[in-house]
Amino acid sequence: MPALNITEESLRRLAPPASGRAVFTDTKLKGFSVVVGKQSRSFYAQRDVRGKTHKVFLGRHPDINVPEARKAAEDVIHGMRRGEARYLERENPTLRHALDGYIAASSACEQHKTYVKRACEVRLKDWLEQPLRDLTRGMVRTKHSTLGKEGKTMANDTLRAFRTVYNYALAEYEKAVLPVCPTIALRGRWYTEANERNGAIRDLAEWKKAVGALENPTHRQIYLLCLLTGLRKTEACRLEWDRVLPDRIFIRENKANRPFYLPLLDEHRAVIKAMKGMHKQWVFPDRSNSGPTVDPRHEEVPGTMHSLRHTFASVGAEIGIPDDIIGRLLNHSSSKITSRYIAVDVEALREPMQKIVDELMKRLNAVTEASDEEEQQELPLAA
């Protein structure tokens, strides 16, 4: 970073950078710096404490002048020397501080927390050490556009993970006085085609043919179980044998973070039976047989893994299953307060589950006029 004797005069002479931001460190006070953007000049104080850099936002020029910023920097740096860095972090948290706090405090399932952590540490790693108040709407729009070139769904999910952490910080760090979450800049800019790809699959006969052509038999069975149960991808992939009971499936790890039993039908048993003997713990082991399958997605199969959940729900609605029953089969959290007092026995869900599976089987086995019945891929399902 270039050095500069930061004064009112030298600040006036600084030309805005052609793009991005330029950082100038003060030649007289170590740790004092000014960040120059196209339309702003912001003062910071920073110091390394026990191998970790702590950076504190002091204010923007001309809201605060150089002498005031220099005095504030001296006070902050002196405070850091006295061990007040943790307090100062709460005044001006970075994305890293907010992420660590969210992961520690959140009651969400481990799968969700792992995804949020990975999204921030991998795809937003250049933001991690920046104070949250420095992450602007323009930066959010640029990041969303850049990530969108790699994958529209991934871009949406990454910025939603960021929004989750930022909103946690809004509630947790009251003294930081953070502005509204900058993802508001994406209103009307989220990639809608990514959501459309997750929509319900209409031609299940075509889908069945594509799944039947997959070389990996484990992936074929995961696709089928997700379709016939409405399970989330991770819930199916991480299914363990001791959770497959004679008349039900116990889902231990789920997004709703609560115990969940699903009725086990003959059609489900046929799918699971095909995996018997593959691994002593995991129903759907990976190729190395060292753990569960992580990502069974295949681009040649219509829709996404989440599309199967939408398909299950849509078919249920089409044949007249009430929304609240579909929600319970999918283990959705209800917005109704009374739901917390209602315990639905798994047997009460067996009949609606059977009706949905029967309709799905009918559509899976449908043969269009343009197709030759002998060419249909046969999958290991009960008759």
From TrEMBL:
One of its GO terms (molecular function) is DNA binding. GO terms for biological process: DNA integration; DNA recombination. Gene3D superfamilies: Integrase, DNA-binding domain, Intergrase catalytic core. The keyword Transit peptide does not apply. The keyword Cell membrane does not apply. InterPro entries: DNA_brk_join_enz (IPR011010), Integrase-like_cat_sf (IPR013762), Integrase_catalytic (IPR002104), Integrase_DNA-bd_sf (IPR038488), Phage_Integrase (IPR050808). Residues 197-354 form the Tyr recombinase domain. Keywords: DNA integration, DNA recombination. Belongs to the 'phage' integrase family. This is Tyr recombinase domain-containing protein. It comes from Sphingobium indicum (strain DSM 16412 / CCM 7286 / MTCC 6364 / B90A). The lineage of its organism: Bacteria, Pseudomonadati, Pseudomonadota, Alphaproteobacteria, Sphingomonadales.
